[in-house]
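Exercise 3.2. Students should predict the tertiary structure of the chain below and write it as structure tokens, then compare their answer with the key that follows.

Predict this chain's 3D structure.
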Amino acid sequence: MFRWLACGWVLCLLVSSCASLRPAHRWVRQVERSAVFSRGITGFVLLDAHTGRCLAQVRGDRYFTPASNTKILTLAASLQLLPDTLPALQVRPFATPPEEGQRWLVRGMGSPVFLHPQFQSWQSASDSLRQYPGALWLCPRPERLRRFGPGWAWDDYLEDFQPERSALPVYGHVIHVHQPAPGVLDVWPPWFRDSCRIDTAVVRPERPEQGNQWKLPPGPNGGQQTYWLPFVPHPLPPLLADTLGKAVDWLPDSLLAHVPSDGWQTLWGPPLDTVLRRMMHQSDNFIAEQLLLLCGQKRFGTLRTDTLIRWLLDSVWTDIPQRPRWVDGSGLSRYNLISPQAMAHLLLHLWRQQPRQRLFDLFPAGGRDGTIARWYAPAPGEAPWLFAKTGTLSGVHCLSGYLVARSGRVLIFSFMHTNFTGSNTPWKAEMERLLRHIRERH
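Answer key:
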């Protein structure tokens, strides 16, 4: 009798185990046998957010180029280090001889928000600078900050997705040019108006790599045309002087050694989550890069992101498998490498640290926001069920985030694809098909 009971218990355990493994085997088979995914290399990991248990994986420990999935790392760093309201810049009075008048020092912190057109409702910093009596002196940072990150494509300097980085960025380092009628240009900021002209010899905007003189093609058939164009931030004092309506210059080199380290006042900008949503929903590379600089300033008082990244990987995210190779904030660099397992564990870290509603609000929602607005839509009357960040470069497409199953359980997933050619639309469609199946069966 005992032997039969023991055999019965073993059989029950085996049946239960096989039942729990069957869905995992199903997802692995579907990924491995996909005719679409077989045209490249795919990595996939699926976790239960509530238990941290791995439900399925295919090449989960292999390294992939994450592209804009790198912004998930920048998001985690920002939530770890930055206050609920973002700083814009720092100021302090500077003692000068009475005959020279009052001077105020202005120091950048890497924050992306000062005069940024997407955050116009939070520009009290510019109002404060206008009200300070006397001239402004811009205080240079001791770090040598390269305008582009490691591994960026330098010939993309004309593209609005790759503005230059700096310690004190203004206007998001992008000008807005609108051609409402033939021969008419509306330019913002107005200081750049005389730097733009229409040239019938060009078919796309052109400017020198190190200069701010643009040639713009006429609108199609004489119609309207709008451009967002990155500018070189070298002429910062005259640009700020025009914006603020007061004298602005660089602090003379002879006075650098006399700048006090204390007494600096922080001028504040928009809420942190407002900026993070812009970064995640619109995949804003400029904001991602500047936020990583700001995190370095907050933690170490320096704009060196390599120091910050090393500290995060060595001291904060110590349980992440397959240490990532992480070199920038946005994912523009192909030097970045991370495994689906590592990405899924970082998403698990965020899930355990942040309230669910806040986290889902920061990620684009399927069928509603950003780069997945036309994918993963819920049925009419239902709430969004997928919250995830895409990442795309030539031959690379990634999607990582959270999936709310029919049962109400939250699953964490990371899809990474590389080494394919042509459009990524088939990969998007195949991921949607598989993720919808996962949603229905969990």
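Discussion points: Residues 1-21 have pLDDT under 50 and may be disordered. The radius of gyration is 26 Å.
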